Every structure is written in C-alpha cells, then in structure tokens.
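In this supplementary section we document a worked example of the pipeline. Step one takes a protein sequence of length 240 as its only input; no multiple sequence alignment statistics are reported here. Step two produces a three-dimensional model, which step three serialises into structure tokens for compact storage. The input and output of this example are shown verbatim.
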Amino acid sequence: MKTWVIINDLQFPFHDERVLSLVVGFIRDLKPYGVILNGDITDAYQLSEFSKDPLEKSDIVAEQRLARDLMGKLAPVTKERWWLGGNHEDRLRRYIWNHAPKFGGLEELTFPSLFHLGDHGFKWKEYGGSLDLGKLMVTHGSLVTKHSAMSAKAHMEKYGTSILHGHVHRLGVYYKRDVRGVHAAYENGCLCLLTPEYDQHPNWQQGFSVVHVDDGGFFNVQLIPILNRKCFFYGGTMVG
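The serialised model returned by step three reads:
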C-alpha cells in the first residue's frame, strides 16, 4: 500500500500562507510515499495576458523562490515527487512562444529548468499530462462548470476513467456505475487565497487529498476540506 498526497492551485504568490503551512506540516509528519503538485502551484502573474493590477509587485523570481522553498520542504519526507503542469505554469511557454519565439527551443527556458525541479527530485509533466495512481488518473484539468462535482463529471466523461483533478478550486466527488464497475471523479480543492482580484466571493473551497493505492491498483481518495483556514480532520484526529 502506497500513500500519496495531492495538492494544487496554490498560485504563488496568491497562496494562503496559513493554510499552506498547515498542510506542509501535515505532509512532513505523515511522510507519504509520494507527493503530487497537481498544477497551478505558481500563478505566473506577470506573464498573463489578462489585465493586471499595476500595484502588484509579484514577479517570476518571487514565485520561483516560493516554489523552491515548498519543494525543499517536501523532498526530504517523500520517495517519489511529481509536478504536473497546470494552465498557469503553461503561461511561461505561451509567453515565450508569443514574445520571444526564437528562444522557444531552449531547454534552459522551460518551466522545470527555470524552477529547478530536478534539484529537489521532482519529475515533470507538461500541462495536459497525467499520472496514474493504480486505477486513478491524476491531472490538473481543463474543464470548468458551475457547481461542485459537475466539473468532475465532465472530466470523467472526457477521459472515461476514474480521475482526480484541480483547476476549478472546488471540492467535489461524482460517482458512476457501469458494466465495468464503480468509477469516481474528484475535484481536489485549492490552497490559494479566496479573495482573487478578478472575482468577488468565488464559490471555491480550500482542500487537498490523501490517496491510498494497493498493489492491485485499487485506490481510496480522502478529500480533506480545510475548515475556516484553521484546521482539518484526518484519521479521526484534528490537525491544526
């Protein structure tokens, strides 16, 4: 049996420092087999094509520092480490292709090189890539619907398998039974602040997941909601 922890949508530097510290402390105590940073860990704010707050001081260097600090804390307590790119990490590729295409082929300007993933033993997959934890597919995700669990349903219908994704900043689970058995799709919440500059009172929920996978590929996903930015429950124990 292998235990994995999956987190996503921190969006450095718009992460919730209080919540992230709580979750990182939990991971360091749990010492899982593996950890997956499931996309949008950084925001790539200054590389966005959207309108930006002219007073926001964040830059790619600050995001790099925060990401390397996170990886440095997780590396010593995990055996396997993955970073699955999200649409925000993909902003770097799009920026280079749009504004400096002659540099588009340089390995040194790819996301894993600029953010030094290899220094901390993190393996990388581009946005759209996935990782199989037994019979469970993990990917950042690309579809957004209005209500909790409906994006999970849409991803299951797209990929045709049990799936865990981020991207929508919500917690939710959708189940379906067919002739092959029971399948499930999970929305993995977020660890960013709930006060984005582009939306008021968004329907988001902070959370993450712990996934247990046996040697036969069967899995159990425990979605863990963060309660009022203060605590959460795991295994009958309050953490925080």
